[in-house]
Request: fold
Amino acid sequence: MPTAEAGRAVFGDDFNPDKTLNGAIALAAAGDLAGPAVALMRAVFACPAADARLREAMIMRTAVRLNCIYAVHASTRIALNSGLSKSEVEALTAAGPVAGINPDLVLIARMADDIADHATLEADLLDAAIKRWGVDNTRKLILMLSWFNLVNRYESACRVPSDSDEKLARSSGPI
Reply:
């Protein structure tokens, strides 16, 4: 993990080691890629194409599909903080296809599965997403899912330590 000084250099006044999640802090260790990575992270979390519930469903399902222990631990708690119900969290973290919850969450989970497993979307799934969210928002959601794939793999490969349950209990996002 980078030093607090490195974190402050990348995050500026937003950096708080007691609040900023370890996955975000780990980006500060990426040298000259840290600034652009954090800028993309900020854009993803501010994107109006996905509300907090949809975004956390994307994060959680991607983490489960990639078996990213850090992100599964963090996103499970943050999802509850962001308005997902316990039954939605259970469905999103279960093995096999997601079913029996809000149709938008099922659709985004199918998209997360396809991108994590195949790096693409089947034509019928892409068509369903465009029908639901429109072309522009579907592109944004695909970019967001691709970011979550990248950052989950980065966190796993860097062996980012889990955040404390206390820190996660107060969190609704990375910063």
Residues 123-157 form the longest helix (35 residues). The mean pLDDT is 89.
